[in-house]
Amino acid sequence: MPAAVIASANETLRENGVTVPEVGEAGAYMKAKxxxxxxxxxxxxxxxxxxxxxxxxxxxxxxLVFRLAREERDAWVNWPARVAALMAAELTASCSEAVGxxxxxxxxxxxxxxxxHVRAHLEELAQPRIAL
Length: 132
Hints:
There is one protein chain. The chain is mainly α. It has helices at 3-15, 24-51, 58-99, 107-125. α1 (3-15) packs across α2 and α3 (58-99) packs antiparallel against α4. It is rod-shaped, with a radius of gyration of 31 Å. The protein starts with a helix and ends in a 7-residue tail after the last helix.
């Protein structure tokens, strides 16, 4: 057995609290058999965790997070077009009341300002990177 494999097996045995004395060929066989049983138990545990939904596939999780982030970004990018007219109307009424004469806030100008601020905010949010 290569030294790296033996070292890895010894480490796994130590991590699991198993000590197998070194007694020639019999000790090496016992150590290998114990290591094999521990590895099978760990594989069964992982399989059970996957079936019960405790563990998920890394690539699937990354893909899901990316899709959700894209949907969120798209919703924000489209938001100014949906609310600009409402906001312009509210501000027009509010400003007209405050100054005592008709003030007009154009929907297009409102949308342009909102889009600039939303895009700037999305740029700020895009800075952190997910590392799984």
